[in-house]
Amino acid sequence: MNQSYMWANSSDSVDITTGTRINYWPQFGVLQYFEFAYIVSIIALGSLGNLVVIFSIILDKKVHSGGNIFIINLAIADFFICSITLPCIAVTIIKTKRVVDDIFCEVVGFIVTATCACSLCNLALIAANRYWAIVKSSCYRQMFSKRAGLCLAMSAWIWSIAITMPTVLGWGDIAYDAKSLICGWHDAASLSYAIFLIVIAVVLPLGTIIFSYYNIFREVRSSLQDVRSLGKRSISSQSSRSRSLTKERNLVYTLMTTVVVFFVCWTPYAAHALVNPSNVKPHVKKVLVWLALSNSCVNFIIYGVMNQAFKKRYKKLFNFIFQCGKCDQSASMQLGYASANS
């Protein structure tokens, strides 16, 4: 790591793009309380929300159906960001200085870079899964068998780690960014790596997503028109097929919304990384990075608001948790009563 990226153990931080010492905390005031509250809210909502997504699917025994393995994989990546990366920012805000050493910073920075790449890779896999389920349904079971799904889910992590590895080998860098208070990919270290990372980690998955959902919408619309054209010739068949297509369309809309929100959160940061990463003002950089990381807590909400299947899964999980709590409380009371009478 270059000396210009090093930092001092004081209230001052070092700007990784210029090597100059800067101080963002002349005094701990209202802004810092707001920043701390915001980050803690993202940590709590993102960590708990992604765990709810994971365990609600597992409890429903639907891990290997409907591309849920990739939704779980996405939730795991988002959980890592909320539980590993964001707590470091929260502590930094409170301490008003950098709190992690160089080695830990490189580990955390590598994790956040790889998990962000993995998130988009999983969004592409989800889109591809729905494409084969709806447009190429005859081949779906062969393409997305239980074993194939597991292999693809693991491949998403291998892929993400592989495209992040150049930062360890000298192409690009992982460093602490005093402007955004985060250890992560140093977006001003190498323009060539920035272009490589955005093309491989963003453009290619985005192309897959656009192609998949465009063809899915065409297929669903065409199928609904065919169902309506049946008229009264087969009412029961028409109703069943219509319900199936409506359910599939609702799921597609839900998943497509996660993609749109992802790009709303990440596009400003990606544009800044390509255009002018060195001269951006500290608070602007903080807003761009924190907006991007905030995406890790929203999928849980999108699933619950837009999709009936996930609403039922959430309800089932919460009922299971609270019923177990009541059973444990009842068992404890009975044990205490028995002990008192013995």
Q: How many discrete structural domains? A: 1
DSSP summary: helix tally: 11
Level-1 CATH class name = Mainly Alpha
What is the string of SSEs from the N terminus onward? EEHHHHHHEEHHHHH
Q: Could you tell me the strand content as a percent range?
A: under 5%
CATH architectural type: Up-down Bundle
> Which consecutive residue ranges, at least 5 long each, have pLDDT under 50?
1-12
Structural class: mainly alpha
Q: Biggest sheet: strands, sense, closure?
A: 2 strands, antiparallel
pLDDT average, as an integer? 80
DSSP E strands, number: 4
Assigned CATH superfamily = Rhodopsin 7-helix transmembrane proteins
Oligomer: single chain
Gyration radius, to the nearest Å? 24 Å
The helix content, as a percent range, equals over 70%
| N- and C-termini, Cα separation | 69 Å
Fill in the CATH topology: Rhopdopsin 7-helix transmembrane proteins
Could you please describe the fold and organization of this structure?
- The structure is a single chain.
- The protein is mainly α and 342 residues long.
- The chain has one domain (3-322): Rhopdopsin 7-helix transmembrane proteins, CATH 1.20.1070.10.
- It has helices at 30-59, 68-95, 102-134, 140-143, 146-164, 166-169, 191-229, 235-275, 282-294, 299-306, 308-341, and strands at 13-14, 21-22, 174-177, 182-185.
- The protein has a two-stranded antiparallel ribbon with strand order 1-2. The chain has a two-stranded antiparallel sheet with strand order 3-4.
- The longest helix is centred in the last third of the chain and has 41 residues, at 235-275.
- The protein starts with 12 loop residues before the first strand and ends with a helix.
